[in-house]
């Protein structure tokens, strides 16, 4: 005879409760597996980029499984029955992944790389970068479905991926904190300041992208440019130096002949 607690005879309502709990735990486990699948995809892309290009458009990836309390609160807000079926069908961000990148173009690049993978189905795209929300919120949201292979069946799990720049993320994190601090009733003056801050963050993103493009164009046009200060401090072997320093250029200056930055002692 088993002495496991679940072998006990429960009263019918408790038995029902235990069944619902078990079903809910199964649902949450599938969402967790969905996150695991997507995290693997993103980490593979990130590592491959770092290996291949020495630069990854993916700066940082984080994930979160919505807490049962937040799921319930959202279900109530949406007027849903708190059942496993209703949650699975109508709450789309139980499994959430956030990807931050340096530049706006990187956000769309990451989006393309993820959504063109053969086992990923795109269910919905909300482009709050192209069309920011009224409060200034910017982010690229894509709701995807990814297969999770269990021992006896395959489940297609919904995962919401939010892709945004570091500046957008900085703004959104603070706005989120303020929103919760004021329980959603944020004073108008603060809302105005947040909108201004969002506009500043957006301008920063545009400027940084332009500077990045300018530097890339410079790199492409002057392949052999090398900062003489860097050469002096590197002490590279002559053969290696020659590959960067064209033979017809002025002789490679000796380290003590190099101009030094004018840094005055504080
Ligand atoms: P939390 O705490 O991050 O989980 P839907 O039911 O999916 O049709 P929903 O949920 O409004 O509608 O979808 P949407 O627009 O994709 O937004 C989902 C998530 O995006 C939110 O989840 C936030 O994480 C983020 N988000 C959307 N708008 C804002 C905003 O104005 N400010 C900030 N800081 N984040 C935002 P939750 O469940 O609201 O919150």
From TrEMBL:
Instruction: Tell me which SMART domains the record gives.
Output: RelA_SpoT (SM00954)
Task: Please indicate which superkingdom the organism of origin belongs to.
Answer: Bacteria
List the molecular function annotations (GO) for this entry. kinase activity
RNA-binding as a keyword of this entry, yes or no, is no
* Domain RelA/SpoT positions: 63-186
Biological-process GO terms, alphabetical: guanosine tetraphosphate metabolic process
- Keywords from the UniProt entry: Kinase, Transferase
- Protein name, per record: Putative GTP pyrophosphokinase
């Amino acid at each position: 005879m088993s002495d496991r607690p679940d072998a006990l005879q429960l009263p019918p309502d408790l038995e029902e409760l235990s069944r619902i709990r078990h079903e809910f735990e199964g649902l949450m486990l599938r969402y967790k597996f969905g996150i695991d699948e997507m995290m693997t995809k993103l980490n593979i892309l990130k590592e491959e980029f770092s290996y291949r290009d020495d630069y990854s458009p993916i700066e940082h990836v984080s994930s979160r499984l919505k807490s049962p309390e937040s799921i319930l609160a959202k279900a109530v807000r949406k007027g849903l029955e708190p059942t496993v079926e209703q949650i699975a069908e109508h709450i789309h961000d139980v499994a959430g992944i956030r990807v931050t990148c340096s530049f706006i173009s990187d956000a769309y690049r990451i989006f393309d790389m993820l959504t063109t993978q053969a086992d990923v189905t795109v269910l919905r795209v909300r482009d709050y970068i192209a069309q920011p929300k009224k409060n200034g919120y910017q982010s690229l949201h894509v709701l995807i479905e990814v297969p999770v292979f269990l021992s006896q069946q395959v489940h297609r799990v919904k995962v919401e991926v939010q892709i945004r720049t570091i500046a957008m993320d900085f703004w959104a994190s603070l706005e989120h904190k303020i929103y919760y601090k004021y329980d959603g009733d944020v004073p108008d003056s603060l809302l105005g300041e947040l909108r201004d801050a969002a506009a500043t963050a957006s301008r920063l993103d545009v400027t940084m992208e332009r500077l990045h493009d300018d530097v890339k164009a410079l790199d492409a046009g002057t392949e052999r440019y090398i900062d003489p200060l860097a050469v002096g401090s590197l002490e590279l072997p002559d053969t290696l130096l020659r590959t960067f320093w064209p033979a017809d250029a002025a002789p490679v200056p000796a380290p003590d002949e190099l101009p030094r930055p004018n840094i005055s002692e504080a």
